[in-house]
Amino acid sequence: MNQTDLTELTAAGALEEEQHESYFQLVWTRFRKSKPAIVGGLMIIGLVILAVFSDFFSPTDPLQLDMPASFTPPQRIHFIDDAGTLHLRPFTYNQVVELDPTTYAPQWTEDKSRRYPLKFLVRSWEWKLLGVIPTQWHLFGAEEGGTVYLLGTDKFGRDLWSRACRAGRISLTLSLFATLISVGVGSVMGVVSGYYGGWIDTVLQRFIEFVQSFPQLPLWMALAAVIPPTWNSFRIFVIMSFIFALLGWTVLAREVRGKVMSFRETDFILAAKEMGASDLRIIFRHLYPNSLSHIIVILTLTIPQIILAEAFLSFLGIGIQEPLTSWGLLMHDAQNLQTLGTHPWIMSPVIFIIVAVLGFNFLGDGLRDAADPYSIVR
After folding, report:
1. With contact defined as beta carbons under 8 Å apart, do 40 and 362 qualify?
2. pLDDT at 192
3. Pick the CATH number of 163-370 from 3.40.50.1360, 1.10.3720.10, 2.40.50.140, 3.90.1170.30
4. Where do the structural domains in the chain lie, given as residue ranges?
5. Using CA atoms, how far apart are residues 346 and 363, in angstroms rounded to an integer?
6. Of 252, 259, 73, 236, which Cα lies nearest the Cα of 170?
């Protein structure tokens, strides 16, 4: 037996073994073999943990104004002091600002006259765990009198690391909420259109084409710009979610329609009809679940698109507004090229956007490959 025959025999045996597993077991088996998908999932889990417990990971209050610390650059974490002595506990130096005698531009330098060791599980400013339990515990913080600005501060002296962690609550929640609306509408419309066909399919497809004829970005900008600034934060959040979901459901509806049209003449659908199953039962008990794997993949790939769209609108100043905070809003100050040139660290929240987009794309690619578990990967 040559190597080719042995490979084919092994693949056939693996396929026969897989066929005895449930569908979701097959998907999980294929998914966990994809290292990029696992890495993407861990990236998303990390961002979610930072967002949910952002106050715990924040050494300073993200809402506290500190004008003397305006545009403070990121502080470096040291293990070796100015004298060359190695310290096992990391520490920081406070930063002081001086004016350049020629250009009068502010220059930040480390004040090495005193070290401020970092401590873990420290008591500092008060916050509420899950919005209910008051506590003062934080993961880390500097010794009293010191500061630790991992990503620097904004123009109001607020810690960018703390604000970026908190901003994940809005960016991730809004993108997920908008995607669920888009996927819910698109999948149902696609299943109904593909199952019934005829004039129902014609009407729905012409309506989808009408919606797709609108350019997405200009329409998003126009709708976001007309939101009254006097509305409360929750209403703005909900309206922004519907704005992003408004045009995002059409592509999924077309794709699901194609899958359903290939399913509706199969034996299990014809058998369900012969047994007297209602249309609603056939749609939501047979057709919709068989399209669910594709819908989940589209969901994971749509979320990063919504994150980027929200970041773009908030960057322009017509998206999320204070007192809400999103990753795009944190980069709003970067519109000023002079400010960006002198304080480049204000773009640091873009790291969170990059991690989120890459994480969801890796996860979506892994789910897309795992959704076809009966294919043999040689």
Report:
1. yes
2. 87
3. 1.10.3720.10
4. 75-148, 163-370
5. 29
6. 236
Quick check: bond before 323 cis, omega within 30?
A: yes
320: closest CA among 180, 206, 163? 163
CA-based torsion, 253, 254, 256, 260: positive or negative: positive
Where do runs of H (alpha helix) occur along 19-130? 23-32, 35-52
Question: Residue 311: how many CB atoms within 10 A of its CB?
Answer: 27
Q: Which residues of the chain have pLDDT under 70?
A: 1-23, 103-104, 338, 372-378
How many of the other CB atoms lie within 10 Å of CB of 182? 28
Q: Read off the amino acid at residue 294.
A: H
% of the chain exceeding 90 in pLDDT? 9
The token duo for 45 is 């889990």
pTM for this entry: 0.82
Alpha helices in 317-378 (DSSP H): 327-330, 337-342, 350-370
Using DSSP, state whether 106 is helix, strand or coil.
strand
pLDDT at 346: 86
